[in-house]
Structure formats: C-alpha cells, structure tokens
C-alpha cells in the first residue's frame, strides 16, 4: 500500500501512514515522499490513498485495486479511467460530519443569543445591551440528510427545536420530525415555517441556486440562513441584497460564491453575517477516521465481498 505525498488541511501524510500501520500491522505501508517515489511505489501497490491521483499515475499503477481519496468530493479524479480499470474508489464522506455539525450549532446559538453582535461590540469597546432570543421552540430546516445532516439533527435534539429535513427521496424518512422532497412547493412550505435553514447538501443540478430571491422572500426578515454545503447552493447576489436591506435576519457562511470571497465584497462589512473560510470540516481526527475507512476496505480485498460491504464506496 502506498500513501501519496500530498497532505490536506495542514495535516502531514506521515501521520496518516502511522494511523494506517496501527490498523493494518500485517500490511507493508509505504509513504511516498517525492514524485519519483510515488511513481515507483504505485507500480506494484494494490492500494493507494491520498488527496489526488492523476491519470498518468493510474496508468502506471498496474496492480491497483483500491484508491481511497482523502476528500468527500471525487470530481477531481479520473473516475472514468478508474472504472475502466476496475479500481474501487472510496472517499472521506462522513469523517467531517462531527466538526461541521458542531460548527452549525455554534452558528445557530450565536444568532439566537446575539453572540456575533457581542463580539463586534467588544472589538469596538462598546458596552451596549441588546435583545436575544432562544433556540428552544424554533424550527430548523436541514437541507441534505447525509452524514452531515444527520449529525446536525442529532446535536439539535437536546435544544427542543422542531426539525424539517429536505432530501431527494422523502419516502426514506430521516432523523427530522418531518421530511420533504425538493419539489418547489414542498421547499417553499418548509422555508415558510423555518426560523433557521441549514444547507449541507451536495451541489447538483437540483440544488444549484436552491435559495434565490423567491426563496428568501418566503423565508422572511426574521430567518437566518446557514450554508456549510457549497457556495452556489445560494444565489449570492440575491443573498447579499437581502442581508443589506433587512429581508433576511442573518447568514452564517462557511462557503461562498466565489471562493475565496473577494476582499472588497460587501458581505465582509455586514453586522448580520458570520463568515468562516471553508474550514468547517477541519478536525484533528481526519487521518484517524480516514484510516478506519481504508483499513475496513483493504481487509475486504481478495475476498468475495459484495461491493455494498465496502465503506464509502463511490459508485457513480
């Protein structure tokens, strides 16, 4: 097995290799430290893992059976070539969910209690009382009920909120009090009842610009929007205008469109906006959790295991 040399989130691949070795003590785990070592080690590796795998690297990896990518997204990988070669691909889906869910909870509590306002006043050395509300009794819609959506809803449980989930197949149910689909009427009905909307779905043709001017009008001036999914889930111009004129109470954005957000963008100066630099998924447990995924899958190689038994297998 070879661990490729690029790290992620300022985490060293050497630490990743160490985590793998503790889980697969009978395997030979090689850490490639140079491009040449990557080329040489890939020629005989059954398993490779890292942030990326170029098509020319794949062409030389004649024995490769499994690639575990250190991210949830796979659009940067040569997926067609991997399929043609019969190489299984697993991703890091779910390993960021706990951290992102905790960050979402922080956003919601910040807006409910006005903490973001207090921080701004502290920076200006201003002692001025302001009104606050409570999260308890509010309605939170969670768009996307994958690992992140489930983690968000789980953490909302003790706060006494009503939850609405939005997913492609509402017949599957979910952890929320109610589940609806992505058809326009259902989405608007959910938005009309929401105090907070949390976007944590992937970017697809269905979800691109899911929240635009019409949806913001349905949400109304008391609602708060949280986006930890992808920037283009929201029509950014419509969002900016709504926040500037008070058509939306606030927004917490870990993702933007474009990204990074330009220094001169008006959102930076708004008191009702919290912006974080797409770091919601950062966790010191990244490598340990990914090593769990890799080890489980590596043990299945050479067996008669059904593909459904592999963890986080990317099938599309």
Main beta sheet strand tally, sense and closure: 7 strands, parallel
Separation, N- and C-terminal Cα atoms: 24 Å
Tell me what portion of residues adopts beta-strand conformation: 5-15%
CATH architecture of the largest domain: 3-Layer(aba) Sandwich
Please work out how many helical segments DSSP would assign.
11
Using the coordinates shown, work out and report the CATH topology of the largest domain.
Answer: Rossmann fold
CATH superfamily of the largest domain: NAD(P)-binding Rossmann-like Domain
**Biggest sheet: strand arrangement:** 8-7-6-9-10-11-12
Mean pLDDT: 96
Output the radius of gyration.
Answer: 22 Å
Proportion of helical residues: 25-40%
Please indicate the count of domains. 2
Structural class: alpha/beta
* The CATH C-level class name of the largest domain: Alpha Beta
Uncertain ranges: none
Total count of strands: 12
Order of helices and strands: EHEHEHEHEHHEHEEHEHEHEEH
Shape assignment: elongated
Features:
single chain; 34% helix; 2 domains; Rossmann fold; elongated; 7-stranded parallel sheet; 5-stranded parallel sheet; 316 residues; alpha/beta
Characterise the protein shown here.
β6, α7 and β7 form a beta-alpha-beta unit. The chain has 2 domains: 2-95 and 283-309, NAD(P)-binding Rossmann-like Domain (Rossmann fold); 97-275, Rossmann fold. It has 11 helices and 12 strands. By secondary structure, it is α/β, with parallel strands linked by helices. α1 (13-23) packs across α11 (286-300) and α8 (184-192) packs parallel to α9 (213-219). The strands form 2 sheets. A 7-stranded parallel beta sheet has the order 8-7-6-9-10-11-12, sandwiched between helices. A 5-stranded parallel beta sheet has the order 2-1-3-4-5, with helices on both faces. The model has no long low-confidence stretch (mean pLDDT 96). The chain is 34% helix and 14% strand. The longest helix is centred in the N-terminal third of the chain and has 17 residues, at 97-113. The protein has helices at residues 13-23, 35-42, 55-60, 79-85, 97-113, 115-123, 147-156, 184-192, 213-219, 236-245, 286-300; strands at 2-3, 30-31, 47-50, 66-69, 88-90, 139-143, 162-166, 178-180, 196-199, 224-227, 250-253, 273-275.
């Amino acid at each position: 097995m070879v661990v490729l040399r690029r790290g992620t989130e300022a985490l060293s691949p050497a630490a990743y290799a160490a985590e793998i070795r503790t889980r697969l003590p009978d395997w030979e785990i090689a850490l490639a430290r140079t491009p040449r070592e990557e080329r040489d080690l890939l020629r005989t590796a059954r398993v490779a893992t890292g942030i990326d795998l170029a098509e020319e690297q794949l062409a030389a990896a004649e024995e490769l059976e499994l690639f575990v990518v250190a991210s949830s997204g796979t659009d940067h990988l040569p997926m067609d070539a991997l399929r043609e070669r019969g190489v299984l691909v697993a991703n890091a889906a779910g390993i960021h969910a706990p951290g992102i869910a905790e960050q979402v909870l922080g956003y919601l509590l910040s807006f409910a209690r006005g903490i973001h306002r207090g921080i701004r006043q502290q920076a200006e050395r201003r002692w001025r009382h302001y009104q606050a509300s409570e999260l308890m009794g509010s309605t939170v819609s969670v768009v996307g009920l994958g690992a992140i959506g489930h983690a968000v809803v789980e953490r909302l449980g003790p706060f006494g909120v009503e939850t609405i989930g939005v997913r492609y197949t509402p017949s599957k149910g979910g952890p929320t009090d109610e589940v609806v689909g992505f058809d326009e009427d259902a989405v608007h009905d959910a938005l009309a009842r929401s105090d907070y909307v949390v976007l944590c779905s992937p970017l697809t043709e269905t979800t691109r610009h899911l929240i635009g001017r019409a949806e913001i009008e349905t949400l109304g001036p008391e609602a708060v929007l949280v986006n930890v999914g992808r920037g283009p889930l929201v029509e950014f111009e419509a969002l900016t205008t709504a926040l500037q004129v008070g058509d939306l109470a606030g927004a917490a954005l870990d993702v933007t469109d474009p990204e990074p957000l330009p220094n001169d963008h008006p959102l930076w100066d708004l008191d009702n906006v919290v912006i974080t630099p797409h770091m919601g998924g950062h966790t010191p447990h990244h490598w340990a959790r990914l090593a769990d995924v890799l080890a489980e899958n590596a043990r299945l190689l050479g067996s008669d295991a059904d593909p459904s038994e592999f963890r986080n297998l990317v099938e599309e």
